[in-house]
């Protein structure tokens, strides 16, 4: 059940303003630092001694706010799809990042293990917060309505509008289908983070090399599949735009 759909906010520019206001903390960092400072003062914690929990609290609050907005707008089923997909992507990214830094310490730039752990946790929170919100944002605008309005307009910016509609539809399509990759992934890798057919990594000295090679293969396969899904709607959209352009002449 949808409590409040973002698409019901009219006119479209007001909907855009609401989305931009909600995204301010993600791009500016405000008021994360202020919340951490307030917690430090309330519990008499030295700024240099602020733990991971204190630093994560404002981002968890922000995540809860955006997840509530997404749930209210999309309903339980779509929200679950967004959240599960973002969580899988976040875990994959963080595990790969931590593994690479463990295997190749010079990539850490001299950071301590605590600093690396903090970075990975913050990265994970950012992914599971912003990926679902980004999907909500791009799906809050109708390509069909945009094309309908463009057919009634004249001027030099109409062509730019058509390109914008094409780009928006491609992004929407990628967001709709990319999480179906999770099902393909489960078929190939039932244990999630290990391949179906793997050598006996635990008993060989080159085990870490095998893991790194598999991680690289996984990343490339995921990128390739995502690209194929993303390009899929382009021919149909281009054909539709050409048809509309021809009808205007």
Keywords:
249 residues; mainly alpha; 73% helix
Number of strands: 0
The number of helical elements comes to 10
Classification by helices and strands = mainly alpha
Strand content: under 5%
Assembly annotation = single chain
Average pLDDT: 78
- Runs in which pLDDT lies below 50 for 5 or more consecutive residues are none
Radius of gyration: 22 Å
Roughly how many Å apart are the termini?
A: 44 Å
**Major sheet description:** none
Report helical residue fraction. over 70%
Shape descriptor = globular
Order of helices and strands: HHHHHHHHHH
Summary of the model, kept short:
The protein is an all-alpha fold and 249 residues long. The protein is built from ten helices and no strands. The longest helix is centred in the middle third of the chain and has 28 residues, at 76-103.
Describe this structure in words.
- The chain is mainly alpha-helical and 249 residues long.
- The chain has ten helices and no strands.
- It has helices spanning 12-28, 32-42, 52-74, 76-103, 113-138, 143-150, 158-177, 181-188, 207-231, 234-248.
- Helix 3 packs antiparallel against helix 4, helix 7 (158-177) packs across helix 9 and helix 7 packs antiparallel against helix 10.
- The chain is globular and about 65 Å long.
